[in-house]
Amino acid sequence: MWDAAGIKQRLEAAYGPPPSRLPLDTISELVLGILSQNTSDRNSRPAFRALKAAFTHWEDVAQAHETEIAEAIRPAGLHHTKARYIKVAVQRVVEQGGGNGHHHGPSLDFLASIPVEKALAYLEALPGVGPKTARIVLLFGMGIPVFPVDTHVHRVSQRLGIIGPRASREQAHRVLEQFFPPDDYYFVHMLLIQHGRRTCVARKPRCQACALAEECTYYQSIQEGSK
Ligand code: SF4
Predict the structure, then answer these.
(1) Is 207 in the pocket of ligand 1 (CB under 6 A)?
(2) Do domains 4-18+148-225 and 26-142 have the same CATH topology?
(3) Measured between alpha carbons, how far is 80 from 68 in angstroms, rounded to an integer?
(4) Of 10, 216, 221, best ligand 1 pocket probe by most atoms within 8 Å of the beta carbon
(5) Which of 81, 68, 69 has its CA nearest to residue 39?
(6) Architecture in CATH for domain 26-142
(7) Maximal C-alpha separation, the chain
């Protein structure tokens, strides 16, 4: 039976501690989340940098024409759709009380002072923002303990047997939030992504080299199948 501490320990021994991310402001996390859908960091990061270079303030993005935003974020792919999402999402944050009343400009910091479920609902109502992006904004941008589940985290936790074989990504968020201690969410999220990229890869997981094989449901089922 899995224990959360054991998984963290073994993954950390295998990959080392995850790098700490440079903290971004919450709107940046939101925009980066929209940009990174259906593409890799290699495309979304340059697109984000280009957007920041093209527009000085978030208010400028809110007022810009969609095509100007699309032009700036072209490397991210699906740039017309993402430009529309970004414009509307940023506009809504700027208009709907996202401003903190200070000279720092608009922000999503108010989400830290309302219940987590409400904060998630606010974010998920923005265009182009799903459960994963909403959680990334809260966890990465504000340190609020929620567990983002991307395709790697979903696949790995399914194979390990932490979540059921048919658990959706939405259900996985809840199960993993119960399973791991809140203080470990960031660390374990990053470690599971590493594991999914390097060892528990989608098509042919490298179970022979895996630090978690002993107790992995998927690995055990293969072993039993080959007996
Ligand atoms: S044993 Fe195989 S399937 Fe299980 S976690 Fe490791 S690599 Fe993934």
Answers:
(1) yes
(2) no
(3) 10
(4) 216
(5) 81
(6) Orthogonal Bundle (1.10)
(7) 67
Per-residue pLDDT averaged across 205-212, rounded?
Answer: 97
7 CA to middle of ligand 1, Å? Answer: 12
Q: Ligand 1 centre and the CA of 212: distance in Å?
A: 6
What rounded mean pLDDT belongs to the chain? 91
Nearest ligand 1 atom to the CA of 212 is 6
* Strand locations in the chain (E): none
The pTM assigned to this predicted structure is 0.90
Atom of ligand 1 nearest to the CA of 219: 1
Contacts of 59 (CB under 8 A, 6+ apart): 94, 105, 106
Phi, psi of 178 (to 5 degrees): -75, -40
CATH no. of 4-18+148-225: 1.10.1670.10
DSSP codes, 1-53? ---HHHHHHHHHHHH-SPPPPPP--HHHHHHHHHHTTTS-HHHHHHHHHHHHH
Lowest mean pLDDT among 73-87, 102-116, 176-190: 102-116
- Residue 123 Cβ contacting ligand 1 at under 6 Å: no
Helix (H, G, I), strand (E, B) or coil at 126: coil
Q: To 5 degrees, how large is the angle CA 36–CA 70–CA 38?
A: 25
Which sequence spans correspond to the domains of the chain?
Answer: 4-18+148-225, 26-142
